[in-house]
């Protein structure tokens, strides 16, 4: 049986040549000649198939097609794929993971614009400066991006811009950047490349994509076609997360496959011929230096500077990647690009008056409402939103009360903002969780919109305390009975603090086709709320 390797298309030929050289040299495993098959595969396709195998999904990726055969070794373009999978599917634990090539992520701009707008190639650009260019109301630049949920270079650009806006402490700038990027997003890298201007005519430059985060290899490959307008590669500082091409041996590989993978990796790690074939493909070696024949773009930093920012061997966390940061960035992106229909339900029981030591003494309610306000501020005008509060007997015998009915955000933005001020804990109020979950589920299902993800996002810091409500078993049974494949509704439960029963929340959320998140430290509710927003986008009916 041959060792099957699936690799990003741009690195397939160098890996295939290295494998052929190893086979020709007579390498073998356990007395058998080495056999290697190297196939081109888009990283998103393999990632979707792995996620599906582990009964999960990646944000913005969806289910695998079922036709994708998983390899023994996977060489995606970035360790971010491995981190996202390991986060979503803890059972996915590939071996090795060391980098076998690298390509810095750059900002690609048509050369005429790069010269006139940013002083390329002499001037060095900061991400904060780029942020200003993108959010300026009079900027002539049309910004493009490959969907960062499906493309590693797009994700690297999103992370870099997110860090720049966070450094400015400017939430408005962060939201503005996301919305600007969303206007000209592409699902495929080839589609984005086709949007660059085909002429230096001012109108063509104005109407085409003026900047986009891509890999250095993308720019080299594009310019090699001798287009009418070449691209400049801007090495923006601080350096974005580079594409690092990890050599990931799949967990299912047996001992013979592992030994064969070790032989192939040894060739990739030490062969001068492989290093030179990378260079001809527009890629650098894993340490950031380049082999013979590498056509570095104009203005590229010195090999030493590239090497200094290259990924450490082993990729992942060693590459400075942060799974939490990736999750936050993609959750924010999802909130902007995938409008939904959501009912947000806030717990206003008396326990929400408890203070949060890690939030300068603010109450749980204050922390929750502030986080929700920031999260709702991300949402596009195409969203539909409503707000409820719940405790016990808030409206006669009902445990819940509507503050704003579900409606289009553009038509009730002021009402929604004002409603957050009405989210006030009721002293002595208990937690009427079960009746509220069922009522909110049915309310969202009743007004179901097929072109949107329909969901309930409910915040609570406790367990059900209403002796007159339905039981947990009855709630679970009702949710399952009322579920409708033609009108799917996701129930997302967000637990706050250490008094929630995580098992209870997970049981209810599973019955409601959703998920449960627990922020044991309420001060971190922002992160959890973003995860909840991303979670609700997993399925569209």
UniProtKB/TrEMBL annotation:
InterPro entries given in the database record: VWF_A, vWFA_dom_sf
UniProt name for this protein: VWFA domain-containing protein
Name of a matching Pfam family: VWA
The organism of origin for this protein: Catenuloplanes nepalensis
Domain VWFA: 341-533
